[in-house]
Amino acid sequence: GIQVEQSPPDLILQEGANSTLRCNFSDSVNNLQWFHQNPWGQLINLFYIPSGTKQNGRLSATTVATERYSLLYISSSQTTDSGVYFCAVKPTDSWGKLQFGAGTQVVVTP
Amino acid sequence: SAVISQKPSRDICQRGTSLTIQCQVDSQVTMMFWYRQQPGQSLTLIATANQGSEATYESGFVIDKFPISRPNLTFSTLTVSNMSPEDSSIYLCSVLWAFYNEQFFGPGTRLTVL
Questions:
Q1: Which of A9, A43, A87, B74 could form a disulfide with A101 if both were Cys (CB 3.0 to 4.6 A apart)?
Q2: Which range marks the domain in which residue B58 is found?
Q3: How many domains are there within chain B?
Q4: What backbone torsions phi and psi does residue A79 show, to the nearest 5 degrees?
Q5: A7: distance to nearest CA of chain B, Å?
């Protein structure tokens, strides 16, 4: 099956800093989503981005499908950005199943 | 996007018992899924809940342990049977918003088995 690798596994940031999270995948996909899991376990949809670039406030994401990677940018980080960020993909030949990466644990300190 | 609710939000159960988790969606959706997230781990798909037919289970998950019902296009249940401490996890319901090809998750059920 498709492999999804996220890096780095852990990230500690000072409030106000910028960061980049990476997601590599091993096969062609027709769905790529970024999620933020807050400390209470809730999965929040950040981006649906199988290709191209999107921005939402301080967050932006870019997927280069031909090179099989996606980047999530966090700018001017805040303590509320803490949590685990997951990348999940759906292979082109799949009929619905999302395959999740292992996640990046982000801690933003005041 | 779909609004998804789950009940219960959390529970503490004794080993050997069973727990049924409910998932309710505010609109009709074609595809519903159940995921498990073990402590400190990522999400793993348990099964696809099919309306009007048996669920489709992923490798490593069996119907006897995780029976699933889906009586209509807005509701599904997952039962965790004959529980052991290894079943302590967050269980999440998910739906595919087909028009946008985007998947959404419920708030999860945090299960602790003693």
A1: A87
A2: 30-99
A3: 1
A4: -60, -30
A5: 14
